[in-house]
Structures are given as C-alpha cells and as structure tokens.
Specification:
This protein is mainly beta. 15% of the residues lie in helices and 47% in strands. A hairpin with a 6-residue loop joins β5 and β6.
C-alpha cells in the first residue's frame, strides 16, 4: 500500500494558503447606494475659461474637483459657488506646470451651483463630480 500522507498534507497546506490569501486580498471599491432622488453629476473634461463661467446652475454637493495644467507655465484658478453672495470653494490657487490637482470635498454644499475660471483660460482642464437632488 502506498503512503498518501505527504500529498494530502501538501494539498491541505495549499488549501489553507488559498483561504488565507483570499481573506487578506485587496478588496475592490465600495459603491454606495444613493436614494432614488439623488443623482450623480459629472462634467466632461473642459478647458477652464478666463472669466467666471457656470459649471452647473442648481444646488449640488461637490465631491471632487480635478484641475490639470497641460502647459509649461503656472496658471491661477478660482472656483466659486453661485449663491447670492458667492463663496469661494477653491481660492485663487496657483497650479504648477504639468500638474494635476485632485481636491476631495466629500460633500461641499454649493447653493445655486458652481462657476470657475483660470487666468489664462487655455491651459487648465477641469472636471467636477458631485450629487444633486431631483432631476
């Protein structure tokens, strides 16, 4: 009769390693469930203009703004909400050449929407992601 103890021990050890590896593996992103009346809003990447321009004109909870400077020189950008007296979301921030800024707000309320601008109006690409109620 043949001795099968060694192959069984090896198989059991491999199974144990697989179970341990699975339980400590890096998990994928968790997606939250939004209520039916909450909509995700995201702009397409676009050049930020040289004068204040509306990005969205309804209430929004800003989650993230990305500013990417494609040029070889610095640029200064500002992002405001659109309430009666606009409040600064991102103050006049200078973005270095060939730099990407990703600003995570989680949920910064912007009544009446968001507007933005950059000094040169040609080199910075902006995107905004947020959530809003209603349609």
């Amino acid at each position: 009769m043949r001795n099968f103890t060694r192959p069984i021990c090896i198989a059991a050890g491999l199974l144990l390693l697989a179970v341990i590896a699975r339980s400590t593996a890096v998990r994928g992103p968790l997606f939250e469930m939004a209520p039916a009346n909450v909509y995700v809003y995201e702009t397409l990447p676009a050049n930020m203009p040289s004068s204040d321009t509306d990005v969205i004109t309804s209430d929004i909870w800003v989650e993230e703004i990305t500013l990417a400077n494609n040029t070889g020189s610095t640029d200064t950008c500002t992002v405001l909400d659109k309430q009666g007296t606009p409040r600064v979301i991102i103050p006049a921030v200078t973005i270095a050449a060939h730099t990407v800024y990703v600003i995570d707000f989680r949920a910064r309320y912007a009544p009446s929407g968001v507007s933005w601008s950059c000094v040169t109006g040609t080199g910075v690409i902006g995107t905004l992601r947020g959530k809003r109620l209603g349609i």
